[in-house]
Amino acid sequence: MASTSGDASSPRFLQLADVAEILNTSSAQVYSLVRSGELPAIKIGGRGQWRVESSELEKYIQRMYEQTRDFVSTHRFGRTDDDPPT
């Protein structure tokens, strides 16, 4: 499996199976993210193999962290502003 840390030994482009392993999800879910445009990718070759650039995967992960923070801050799970955080 490839590292996305940006070191010289990591590949620039990842197969969807590699992305699925990194995100601990299925290849079908990654394909859905790519087809929806949520995760940018390119289609290469005559058989149309998809590749995700490592930097785009990192951007996607950061966007998901931001969206999760926004979700958590607006969906307080029944807590009020007076309740201490748990």
3D architecture notes:
This protein is an alpha+beta fold and 86 residues long. The protein has one domain: Orthogonal Bundle (Multidrug-efflux Transporter Regulator, Chain: A, Domain 2), CATH 1.10.1660. The chain is 45% helix and 13% strand. The protein contains three helices and three strands. It has helices spanning 16-23, 27-36, 54-74, and strands at residues 13-15, 42-44, 49-53. A three-stranded antiparallel beta sheet has the order 1-3-2. Strand 2 (42-44) and strand 3 form a beta hairpin. Helix 1 (16-23) packs across helix 2. The longest helix has 21 residues, at 54-74. The radius of gyration is 17 Å and the shape is elongated. The N and C termini lie far apart (37 Å). 14% of the residues are buried.
